[in-house]
Amino acid sequence: MPLILSFTQSWLPKPEEGFRPGSADISWSNDRLMLVADLIDEEVITTATANQQRLWEHGDVVELFVQRVGESGYREYQVSPNGFKLSLSYPDLTGVIAVRSGERQIDEFFSRDSFIARAELTATGWRARFSIPLPGSFGERIRVSCCRYDAGACRFPIISSTSPHPVRDFHRPQDWREMILMEE
Hints:
By secondary structure, the protein is mainly β. 5% of the residues lie in helices and 43% in strands.
């Protein structure tokens, strides 16, 4: 069964002005995790020019976080509206904390995962599609979170997530949605 989720700003009492809705459809089949994110967006923008850039600094981006239940490490996958990708692998939360404090550089966590990501413009915004290798067993549990940076030319990005984060921080696996691996 696919997991169908809506983007929200759960850390706020009400969505901020300019928030645009979106949905994420996450499923697993043939040892691959799939995501289709449909995003309403009147101004799809990015300045990304290559893979493995800090895509959230370049404009619109969709992120997918994945962690196996019981493991401390997790992976992060991103795609921009023009199709550039970023893949990161964190052994645990100490890596994220070290990057935020400036003790370590984010490129230390670059991953060469062979995931497929595509983006396309739609009549109401844009759509991101991911296909990520995720060998697993029927009934295995994982945590997932789909997040979004909705950039604008004259404003800070409006961020949202499919997870019920109590604070504005996507790197909180304890808040991510749990999913049981099952064939469609």
